[in-house]
Amino acid sequence: MESLKNTATEKVKLKSDNRILLSIHRCLTDFFGPLYWWPGDSELEIMIGAILTQNTNWQNVSKAIKNLKENNLLDTKALVEIDEKILANLIKSCGYYNLKAKRLKNFIYFFYKEYDGSAEKMFSKDFWMLRKELLSINGIGTETADSILLYAGNKPIFVVDAYTKRVFRRHKIISEKDDYEQIQRYFMEKLPSDYQLYNEFHAQIVMVGKQYCKKSVPNCQDCPLAEFS
DNA sequence: TGCCAGGCCGGGT
DNA sequence: ACCCGGCATGGC
Predict the structure, then answer these.
(1) Is any atom of nucleic acid chain C found less than 7 Å from the CB of residue A55?
(2) Mean pLDDT of chain A
(3) pTM given for the model
(4) CA of A136 to C1' of B10 (A)
(5) Is A155 helix (H, G, I), strand (E, B) or coil?
(6) Can you tell me the distance from the alpha carbon of A175 to that of A173, in angstroms, rounded to the nearest whole number?
(7) Inter-residue contact A181 to A135 (CB < 8 Å)
């Protein structure tokens, strides 16, 4: 009885505690070990992957990227010059291929024109300013922009995706009605500004979302975050 | 077999 | 300010 009460009190305390996110992150670090995200050998590859993976399984995306690689298309100039229809055909496996070919083109024109295809140049800019520029490109929304900033640019900005929402809503750590910006602010206010931490944490959240906190199974079985909900 | 996957845009209320 | 349909392939 006494211990039960204490446990309940602990949970309430923990939930309102600013450090609950750090506790969760530590728990997931023990659980998964290092995850080494984002898969990709260059900034450009990571940025392309961020666009191609919109609402799409990564497996399908990696095939498309492999295809691009084999055709020497992980290159800004080559992507500027390639015909959009041909590009669409090469990325067919990742779905929405006509749309994504257009979006990829939009981004690559911007990258080539504004930054001469240099990631170093682009990421030397104040990253909140750069975020605005990215968001102004048709086809780049909040998550894609933030993935580019965090994973290609090593900027301390937290990426919110469908997994983040589902996992943290299901465990009642964030509210159902919080939108992208609110959730992002919540994470960034409660966590130290550290790109490596954001990188690892987001990767862990995706793992939890895929393996334990599945959409099709409303009660997360064996969820490593059970103790936090 | 049907459902799902690391969103975003444009048009309608 | 929301809400919704469209976009599409491949894996389980």
Answers:
(1) yes
(2) 93
(3) 0.93
(4) 15
(5) coil
(6) 7
(7) no
- Show the tokens assigned to A168: 């943290």
Nearest nucleotide to A159, CA against C1' atoms: B6
Q: What is the pLDDT of residues A44-53, one digit of tens each?
A: 999 999 999 9
Handedness of CA A130, A135, A136, A139 (dihedral sign): positive
Above pLDDT 70, what percent of chain A? 93
Rounded Cα gap, residues A146 and A46, in angstroms: 12
Polymer length in residues for chain A: 229
Q: Please give the Cα distance from A61 to A64 (Å, whole number).
A: 5
The C1' atom of B7 and the CA atom of A60 lie apart, in whole Å, by 15
Look up residue A57 and give its DSSP letter: -
Tell me how far apart the alpha carbons of residues A174 and A164 are, in angstroms, rounded to a whole number. Answer: 10
Strand B and A145 CB separated by under 7 Å: yes
Q: State how far the Cα of A49 lies from the Cα of A14, in Å rounded to an integer.
A: 37
Angstrom distance, A50 CA to B10 C1': 22
Q: What is the pLDDT of residues A154-179, one digit of tens each?
A: 999 999 999 999 999 999 999 999 99
- Residues A72-106 pLDDT 10s: 999 999 999 999 999 999 999 999 999 999 999 99
Return the pLDDT at A213: 94
Please check whether strand C approaches the CB of A95 to within 7 Å. yes
A36 touches strand B (CB under 7 A): no
* Chain A 105-134 residues in 7 Å CB range of strand C: none
For residue A220, what pLDDT band results from cuts at 50, 70 and 90?
A: confident
